[in-house]
Design goal:
heterodimer; B: Beta Polymerase, domain 2
């Protein structure tokens, strides 16, 4: 049986790859759907990198795209992070809880979680019966990511991916 | 002052007002005026953001609310001082010789 630590290493490596791709999509020549697609992928792998080290059922975790919101809930209780940010346990929890609505919106970008609705990969039919194309769609999440909370969250995602070993494996 | 500049200025003030209203810890917003293209470059100074030692700007395409390309970045007050001392580089086209500063006291929230 492959050790969970090996899975963690594998997932964080892939998260770093997806984050690098996300950063390339920050150039205006890329579509919003590409940017969101890579952000969703990076955060899913980041989430799995942490969760796979816990007691979560491995098979269930592998087959699911829902990992980022759970990841943030765990992070909100992380001792190393509270020390790094100079926050008490309750301050850390309150602080990271504010990001959960945006994290949820990122998480449900995964087509399997989008319930046949807006996602950055495949066309879908909206409530009026119109076929929508990700490349043309104005994702409401974009507005959330422009907000101060959205900017904070994306910068924290970057920090978590860069310092994953120090924050979560020690 | 051109009509276009006045319009961009109005949009910048709207974004700035909105962000001061959304985040109590936001201290300042720096508007780097583009000399080459009708775009909005904003740097938010916020002690609550994680320090990263660089200025990573995020691009948002024009929308109904912000009809210009929008580039947003966020740094801590210490990082902003380092930017001003030119120890941390700004994104291409952002010029320390041509910016306007918005503080919480200047805006109506």
């Amino acid at each position: 049986m492959i050790e969970r630590r090996s899975w963690q290493t594998a997932f964080i490596k892939q998260a770093r790859n997806d984050w690098a791709a996300y950063q390339r999509t920050l150039h205006p020549s890329w579509s919003v759907c590409d940017r969101l697609h890579y952000l969703q992928m990076a955060t899913e792998k980041l989430g799995k990198a942490l969760l796979v080290g816990g007691k979560t059922d491995l098979e269930r975790l592998m087959g699911s795209h829902a990992a980022f919101v759970k990841f943030l809930r765990v992070v909100a209780n992380n001792y190393n992070l509270s020390v790094k940010l100079g926050m008490t346990k309750s301050q850390l929890k309150t602080y990271f809880t504010q990001f959960l609505p945006i994290a949820h919106e990122i998480e449900i970008l995964a087509p399997a979680l989008a319930q046949g609705g807006p996602n950055p990969e495949y066309p879908w039919v909206d409530k009026s019966g119109q076929i929508c194309v990700p490349a043309d769609y104005l994702f409401p999440l974009t507005k959330l990511l422009q907000s101060p909370s959205g900017l904070h969250l994306v910068k924290y995602i970057r920090l978590f991916i860069a310092e994953f070993e120090n924050l979560f494996l020690n | 002052m051109s009509h276009n500049h006045q319009h961009i200025e109005g949009v910048v003030e709207k974004i700035t007002n909105e962000h001061f209203g959304l985040d109590e810890s936001l201290e300042k917003v720096i508007w780097f005026k583009s000399e080459t293209a009708p775009e909005i470059n904003l740097l938010e100074i916020n002690p609550a953001t994680p320090a990263s030692g660089d200025v990573l700007s995020f691009y948002f395409p024009p929308s109904d609310e912000v009809p210009y390309p929008l580039y947003l970045a966020e740094v801590t007050p210490e990082e902003w001082q380092r930017v001003q001392r030119r120890e941390i580089p700004l994104p291409e086209g952002w010029n320390l010789e041509n910016y306007e500063e918005f503080s919480r006291e200047m805006v109506t929230v």
